Amino acid sequence: MSYAFVAGCIAIVLFVRIVWVFRCIRRTKTNSKPLKTLVILGSGGHTTEILQLTKQLNRSYYVPLEYCRASTDTTSVMRLPDRHAVVHTIPRAREVGQSYATSLFSTIYALWHAFFLIAKIRPGLILCNGPGTVVPLCVAALFWRVVGWCPGQIVFVESYCRVQTLSLTGKLLYPWADLFVVHWEELHRQYPRSKLVESFVRRQKDK
Amino acid sequence: MSSKNKTILVTVGTTQFDDLVQCVTADQALQSMANLGYYRLVIQYGKGLRPSTISTKYEIEMICYDFKSSLQEDILQADLILSHAGAGTVMECLTLHRKLVAVINSKLMHNHQMELAVALQQRGHLYMVEQPQDLWIPELWEAIDQFDPLPHPAGDEYAFPRLLDEFCGFRNNSNSSKIQ
């Protein structure tokens, strides 16, 4: 049996898995068991938003609920509603204002960490809204999902401060996030696959 | 001149916004504040530089700190909030129904904060200042003083959980297989 044959088989299996995963991504899920949920804390405003969004989650569905923060972010942990929550740490992909050239190296480093972290946590659901930090984690989740190690469904909520344009993270995740949520009608019109949620904002006509 | 009993809170969130801190502690801004009856200036300067002492001429008391785990108390006590246009601070101030002036940090890479400030200004919820240096213009302070914000409608905390439950299929099969 030649190596080419083995390699070919692996390639076919991977291809089928990738097609299958991408077919699943756009569908409404039918989960019957509680989902292990990983909430990614961006820092600052991102953390405020995600904590606000997850405040009223039904804890019997999304259990265990664990958190993940960037290593440079020291304030987020203090704001968690649950003092005993499990909080994982990852290196930050991009600081606010960091140039894209040096971002590349820190992103590769972050990706390396993310692969191990996601493999260890095996989340059923990833909730994120954050900055660069979330991209490596989502890529890692997609990889482990294709391999079949964990479900790793991705829910991305675009920041409330995005009215007209998506964030860089949003643009990167829009094509393959399972659920993509925006807060403003202006954005929802431009990105029809997104879902509009009015947690903080009401429609303009209700004013 | 109105009575001197009002407080201004300046907040920059978790980052830094030295331009704003510098502009509000300059005499030009202090003069306008004093004219409008502010006697206390509370500054949360974040990762930026601690502001130096201010001129005593205007009898304004300055209180500075870098971070607090919750700004809620200070927000509630303030009559006017000058803030960077970050979503967290903006949301908090609007839910607490405070008069908010969002100052744009034009030095940030890809300044999207302006989008939010513009959208909320269009809906009448806050007053937007395009650059910190504008705070030296006395007429701007008059405009801020006269600005009467429309109350921001309360958000629905259950909107996102509902969407997520539906998406994950928990709502659909909650009758057939009960999850404890």
Protein model, in words:
The complex is a heterodimer of chains A (207) and B (180). Chain A is an alpha/beta fold. Chain A has helices at 3-25, 44-54, 100-121, 134-147, 168-173, 185-190, and strands spanning 37-41, 65-70, 87-90, 125-128, 153-157, 179-182, 195-196. In chain A, helix 4 links the parallel strand 4 and strand 5. The longest helix of chain A is centred in the N-terminal third of the chain and has 23 residues, at 3-25. Chain A is globular and about 60 Å long. Helix content of chain B is 34%, strand content 17%. Chain B is elongated and about 65 Å long. Classes of the chains: A alpha/beta (207), B alpha/beta (180). The interface between A and B is large, with 56 and 46 residues.
Task: Summarize this structure briefly.
Chain A has 207 residues and is of the alpha/beta class. Chain A contains 6 helices and 7 strands. In chain A, α3 crosses α4 (134-147).
CATH fold label of chain A: Rossmann fold
Biggest sheet layout of chain B = 6 strands, parallel
Helical content band of chain B:
25-40%
Largest interface: A-B, 56 and 46 residues
The percentage of residues in β strands of chain A lies in: 5-15%
Strand content of chain B: 15-25%
Kindly report the average pLDDT value of chain A.
Answer: 83
Oligomer: heterodimer
